[in-house]
Amino acid sequence: MTEQQHRDLLQDEVQAGTTTGLASPLVDVTDDRQQSLWSDAWKSLKRNPLFWIGSVLGVFFLLMAFFPAPFARGADPRACDLANSKAPPSAEHWFGYDQQGCDYLAQVVYGARSSLIIGALAVFVILVLGVLVGAVAGFFGGWVDSSLARLTDVFYGIPFILGAIVLLRAAFNERGSVQVAIALAAFGWMTAMRLVRSQVIAVKSSDYVAAARAMGASSPRILVRHILPNAVAPVLVYATITVGVLIAAEATLTYLGVGLQRPAISWGLQIDNGQSLLRTAPHLVLFPSMILTLTVMAFIMLGDALRDALDPRQRA
Amino acid sequence: MGRYVARRFLLTIPVLIGASFLIFAMVYALPGDPIRALAGDRPLPPAVVAQIRDDFNLNDPLGLQYVKYVGDLLQGDFGTDFAGRPVIDTIARTLPVTVRLTIVAVLFEIVIGLTAGVLAGIRRNGFFDNLVLVSTTVIVSVPILVLAFISQYVFGLKLGLFPIAGIREGWYSYILPGLVLASGSLAYVARLTRTSIAENTRADYVRTARAKGLPERTILVRHTLRNSLIPVVTFIGADIGALLGGAIVTESVFNLPGIGREVFDAVRAQEGAVVVGIVTLLVFFFIFFNLIVDVLYAVLDPRIRYD
Amino acid sequence: MTTLPSSASSVRDGGASAPILSVEDLFVEFRTRENTVNAVNGISYTVSPGETLAILGESGSGKSVSAQAIMGILDMPPAVIPQGEIWFEGRNLLTLPAEEARKVRGPGISMIFQDALSALNPVYSVGFQIGEMFRAHRGMSKKEAKQHAVELMDRVRIPAAAQRVDDYPHQFSGGMRQRVMIAMAIALDPKILIADEPTTALDVTVQAQVMDLLKDLQRETGMGLVLITHDLGVVNEVADNVAVMYAGRIVERGTVDDVFTSPAHPYTEGLMNSVPNVEVKGGRLQPITGQPPNLSKIPSGCPFHPRCARRRLGADALPGRDCAGDRPPLRLVVPGREAACHYSEEVLGV
Lengths: 316, 307, 350
Fold this sequence. Notes:
Helices cover 71% and strands 0% of the residues of chain A.
């Protein structure tokens, strides 16, 4: 790798949040010790409290998304009785009621499902786009790489929320989970692309790929057997953190009015509806906020823990 | 250096063109109905629809539409709202508030974030260091939306320390929203600084500086800090984009009459043209600002200049 | 006043006067949570004015660590110096207060490193970094310091010094960068220059130029040169005396000519045999089998015994000289030669 490639790789990894350092000479990330990478990582993970907190929270919310009924204590979020409007929390109904008189605990619990679906879907699209574009750009180089880089720059030029707002407002006639996920992915794929591209370039110019080529390995084989496994670690870290970031982004967009629409159940909608009643019925904003934060925190902590465990610089 | 600046500048032009085209495409070229995008969901009498089609050149072929669109932009015409008020006027009116908010946020980022990061990085694995690590993880996880409401509730409503909304109290009204806006970036700056410093103190050139018998203070300031701050400064610059997005939420929660709130209101009122106009301007500003950040990076790190 | 140890001073050539630097019984450990690494295990050597002492060894032999201990630039945790003295100009560097020790670095003893690109700060010009020596130690102004920097760059034979003084390290080639480092190191006329693998990262032709430069500078100034390297060729060309290190100890010491033509320690012997010899064609290279020891688990007895073809264990060994049980001290084998082997006489063939 040339000096410039070293620096580009480092810069991309910093931007993606998969590492935060820039000073020391780069440890060659193409070190072919795959087996020990994952077992070392696991040992390191086990020792990290962030990993355990994040995992527990994450599993908790995954369960809540898949099996909401027990978490909602059997209540139906859509069984609303205006007589209960805005009632505060009580022993029977832990989160009280919202303006429509719906059980708020049920509302918040069922809100997890749409958030997690959108987050997962968006990350999936980001990964597909990122891996495809990044691998092509990194592998072929030359003008292919330059033009894709310009394309990426164009998308980078539009701040995430602004782009999502325009896209959601203008391009879709109705906004369900899929549309929101697409909008999130449309302005968030670039970092994944840069990350994959950097890894591909780093590995492509490494000695053992040269050796593999000399032994007659074909390009697709090299790509799959050598390049992609090396890219997995930073992309995994990035993907985990991004799920958290996107869940927060979906709530924000929905709050702003360009995300999910009624009658969908979403934390963003709940916060939006509750904001005017902040003084008198703060629980309407507080509870979805709290659960949203804990969910986001789960993924970010997991991502952080993974990053610390998988950072090749710390293994050296 | 001059060549580097010229090259970066030239590269910015296709990005500007591309971004404006992307925005244009999103509104006019994608399957969604541009009338709906521009005028909202309300049912409109045919005369009004015809007027809109005419105003926005919707009867022209797409290529011509784009040309006219760009032509308007170059003349400073970013569209008008339903009452016929030019978007550019709205922007001029509300921009100062957002600028002030952003300045306050960046100041917080620098002062708190850098300081915490430097202190944590110098004494790695100390108590302060672990404190910074944990608190930054937590802060980054709290969405700005949530933080805005919580702080408004706790510090504004309950404790009465800060105004809940509006800008009646001058710069003081910007403190709480500015801090909220800066929170995520501040945490990241602290982390980045900490790691950058921790790594730089082990760098080879620091070892050389020590071998030269330079005083510790010189080594710290001139060698370690200076080099550590490079990635941080460039991050702060590039982060302005995130601040722009966050400003929308912050201004709407704290009811600050800035550009962000304008976007929020326009989305609510389904004033699509206003939304598109403001976003376009913000995007241009952001791209241009990135150019400045690139140049700044080259000033700080000579290796970049001579590529 | 102190007296210098006699054991080390009995083995020397190439310098007529008393030693300027004397390392005595130095130990350096690195203590981590998991284990303790014994990087340096009791070494002693001296350097006289005009002498070039080569410290020869593989990576992991402790040669760089001992040099860094002399300079006082080890990270002190995790490094610990439990024992030893380093005498320079009548003072024990290890017991000096930090500020006094700092003043020795640069004007008294200076050091150059292997990779000049990472050893130089990338964001300051070379003139600035060379000038730092004058500003920090002699209180000169920026302008004066810069002038001196240009002179130094001339002295180390960097072409167009006046034009290039404001250039940055990455704008120079590897050999030129190394010269910049040398310029920084000799700026204040130090008595001792320690060169830690100065040519390892350079091309062979450039290597020769840099080593010539160092020798010329040494002749001009009369400074002592400590050359730390694993490159036998460089040692042969440039050094007067050589100390061979293994597992943190000196296992052989003598003049370069003597040691290289007739080694007294199996390790040195192995090193000599592993180098291709132009006069002996058609044979096989004989590398030393095995790996250098893990410094946190140094073998008992003679640390080299697991890899030694001449080892004598158990019944084969003479009493008190079991290679696996009894550690051989560094002793005088023949006049002018010390070796740490129970059976050096056999190795030498005397």
